[in-house]
Amino acid sequence: MVEHIHPIAETASETSAAVDASAANSSAKVNLLGMSETKLIAFFETLGEPKFRAVQVLKWIHQLGADNFDDMTNVSKSLRAKLNLCAEIRAPEVIKQLDSTDGTRKFLIRVSGGNVVETVYIPEGDRGTLCVSSQVGCSLDCSFCATGKQGFNRDLTAAEIIGQVWIAAKSFGQLVANGPRAVTNVVMMGMGEPLLNFDNVVDSMNLMMHDNAYGISKRRVTLSTSGVVPQLDRLSQYTDACLAISLHAPNDELRNELVPINRKYPIAMLLDSAKRYIADMPDNHRKITIEYTLIDQVNDRPHHAHELAELLRDVPVKINLIPFNPFNLSNYKRVSNNALRKFQDILIEAGYIATVRTTRGDDIDAACGQLAGTVNDITKRSERHRARFEEAQPIKIIG
Ligand code: SAH
Ligand code: SF4
Hints:
Layout: E1 2-4, H1 7-14, H2 16-28, E2 30-31, H3 37-46, H4 51-64, H5 77-86, E3 87-88, E4 93-99, E5 105-111, E6 115-124, E7 127-131, E8 135-137, H6 146-149, E9 152-155, H7 158-171, E10 185-188, H8 198-209, E11 221-225, H9 229-235, E12 242-246, H10 252-258, H11 267-279, E13 288-294, H12 302-311, E14 317-323, H13 337-349, E15 354-356, H14 381-392
Parallel strand pairs: 2-3, 7-10, 10-11, 11-12, 12-13, 13-14, 14-15
Antiparallel strand pairs: 1-4, 4-5, 5-6, 6-7, 8-9
The chain binds S-adenosyl-L-homocysteine and iron/sulfur cluster (SF4).
């Protein structure tokens, strides 16, 4: 494992006076980084500037990685001066970059309030998938998820969400040198529940797919949800990205335990809503990705696989099996290789596409569900979990 401390972090700590001054300036300025094209055009209108100027600036930011108006050589000097007075392009700060031996790269990103979120880049052949966070922590508290155990602090802003793509693309030279496309796919599978931060997530995903921004195909941007049904019901009005459902259990009784939001929006309701989402898509060959984290002896038995095959009979799906990734504060164990193979075979025999997600970035704790960052937990949940967990541990006899 190679550990880099990003130069931005070092420079920032050395020049605190300059940072303070720029922070004072920046608070009054409008950050353009998270603005959708429509919002940017509206903002330019308030400055008395035409639409095409907004489009030029949008391209500078997202296609060329600019964070300084003075670099925008095809924008008039007077407009640049105007923008310098009232606006800025401010990405969140990368405090650490961790590179795994398998090519996975994790960014620790500081957002305001003393919080740190995580973004993971996973290269695989000619594909580069970025796993993006949507919230600081998560309020939904799924029993197998490190982010859930961290509690919740706040929603990320659109600038902080699209900023993760901007940072990753830039770190691979995609933007600055107009180099080859490094980020080919995005999955909203980092920290947080994207549908609980609806507007900022939708604006950010639409920038990922927009031709004047990152131009990633709608088949390569995926929103993953544990099932916030009322928001899922609205989603097709705002985006046509792909959909993944974190199911993890074939019946309500078990899912209530693993994914507590199921008590409010049970499986039948969730699958109906997901079916309506893909039915609303203009291209009608879409499949819903079903994510199923396999936990030893909990949801990995052959009868669970048969029940799952039955449950999904009328739903157009592909199934992605995720071996549980252990973390401290959890007593669950990873599925055995035998049980995993058997589970997959049952689904394949029943006619499903069932793939296994390989664990990547193990040496830098970058695997699914291990993203914990530093959450200034306003829910106090992390304390409660730690107390309960420590109580449940057998007393260690030393000597
Ligand atoms: N909140 C959203 C997106 C973030 S979680 C959701 O729940 O879908 C992204 C994926 O990682 C989900 O499928 C989640 O169930 C899975 N995951 C969480 N913890 C995990 C763990 N410890 N091991 C393996 N997968 C995990
Ligand atoms: Fe939140 Fe998703 Fe983790 Fe559940 S699995 S606690 S919804 S991040």
